[in-house]
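Issue 218. Parser rejects a valid record. Input:
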Amino acid sequence: MATYLITGASRGLGLALATELAALPESEIRAVFLASRQPHNPNVTDLVEKSGGRVVPVQLDPNDSESLRAAVEFVESRVQGKGLDVLVNNAGIQPITAGKAEKVHDFTEVFHTNVTLAHLVTSAFLPLLRQGQKKTIANISSSVGSIGFAPSFSAVPVHAYKVSKAALNMLTIQYALDYADEGFSVFAISPGWLRTVLGGEMADLPVETGAKETLKYIRQAGPELNGRFLNIHVPGWENAPGPNRYDGKDLPW
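Output the parser choked on:
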């Protein structure tokens, strides 16, 4: 039975991932920790009540060292010496840039949220992950963070977000290289352009589809996924017109 911790889990992809996991049998999923700054909202409360205690909200503001320490201690008390199996770094922001690259003014905030906080959360929970069986860290990235695909996404006005996801990919590689000898599987994965508050109503896929396909990789993760930049597979989208093709192949860095 695996234990998961998902950041940014009060809505969107994070909540959808938790919902998918909670639907799996208890023989596969022991606990899903939903970490966010404000973990108590109607959607989370409803999922917690339906899960029979397997979905557990966790108050976590990684900007606050005391909040981060308390979150680690809380999860440690609940896993009872069995460790944490999977960490999903999902929290992130995506502001719009009004104009070309010279107009970007929010690099500091976006980098801090999308990269630095992912690092702080990962390093804080690493001791519990070492005790777990799966030792999996999945960083939710984006195809717009691919330097190889940059020309295809030139019209998408999220400059700081693109650069931060490229940086998150490099952070992923650093962890993948440093902890491979301990049996860790650390990878970046793009869940697709999803219909969430972040992705908007015009996005390609329902959030449920992105969550389901993302979890196929996370649940089966092993050494073969370590250090990779993964793209989900959605039948019918392998050769779709436009930049977004969900073919299940590794994305170019």
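Fixed in the parser; the record now loads. The beta strands are 2-7, 29-36, 55-59, 86-89, 136-140, 185-190, 229-231.
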